[in-house]
Amino acid sequence: MAKTHVTMTVNGAEVEGLVEPRMLLVHFIRENLALTGTHIGCETTHCGACTVDLDGMSVKSCTVFAVQAQGSQITTIEGIANPDGTLSALQEGFRQMHGLQCGFCTPGMIVRAHRLLQENPNPTEEEIRFGIAGNLCRCTGYQNIVKAIQYAAAKINGVEFKEAAE
């Protein structure tokens, strides 16, 4: 099968490669770029483990062809850390609030939460739950993930994080 030359910017670096037209973006990211933080879960868009930020939108890279990302700006979990390599507010929130357990869904959750906080810097708990509804976690029951995102929002906004009374 003839291959197509693609170029895109991933985590701030321009990358290129030859891909078959049917190659999925998640495979291009993992296999061609060796960025294995983006996980392959269901391969049907149901779980969100493969979520990346593509031109300012959260997309599930298991149902996007690499050729469709030609010329795009993509952020993966590897691009979420601060430029100096320290944890971003979201990564720190997931760590501090125990928002991860097995960690399989965590990269997709953090990338989706990153876009959510770009769109709504101060979301309510309900808005967070709605915003991550396309990403499944089989371990935490979401309570600590929601706290992690609230923690990050507070840190980004420069206010003290206060957990809601239970």
Question: Please, could you describe this protein's structure?
Answer:
The chain folds into two domains: 4-79, Ubiquitin-like (UB roll); 89-157, [2Fe-2S]-binding domain (DNA polymerase, domain 1, Orthogonal Bundle), CATH 1.10.150. The model has no long low-confidence stretch (mean pLDDT 95). It has a five-stranded mixed β-sheet with strand order 2-1-5-3-4, sandwiched between helices. The protein contains five helices and five strands, in the order ββαβββαααα. 31% of the residues lie in helices and 15% in strands. The protein is α+β, with helices and mostly antiparallel strands and 166 residues long. This is (2Fe-2S)-binding protein. InterPro entries: 2Fe-2S-bd, 2Fe-2S-bd_dom_sf, 2Fe-2S_ferredoxin-like_sf, 2Fe-2S_ferredoxin-type, Beta-grasp_dom_sf, Diverse_Oxidoreductases. Residues 76-150 form the [2Fe-2S]-binding domain. Residues 9-62 form the 2Fe-2S ferredoxin-type domain.
Arithmetic mean pLDDT: 95
At the fold tier of CATH, the topology name of the largest domain is Ubiquitin-like (UB roll)
**SSE pattern:** EEHEEEHHHH
Let me know the CATH homologous superfamily of the largest domain. Answer: Beta-grasp domain
Oligomer class: single chain
Fraction of helical residues:
25-40%
Cα radius of gyration in angstroms: 16 Å
Low-confidence stretches: none
Main-sheet strand order equals 2-1-5-3-4
Question: What is the count of helical runs?
Answer: 5
Gap from first CA to last CA: 58 Å
Global structural class:
alpha+beta
Give the CATH architecture of the largest domain.
Answer: Roll
Sheet-strand content, in percent, reads: 15-25%
How many separate structural domains?
A: 2
Main beta sheet, described?
A: 5 strands, mixed
The overall strand count is 5
Quickly name the level 1 CATH class of the largest domain: Alpha Beta
Q: How would the global form be characterised?
A: elongated
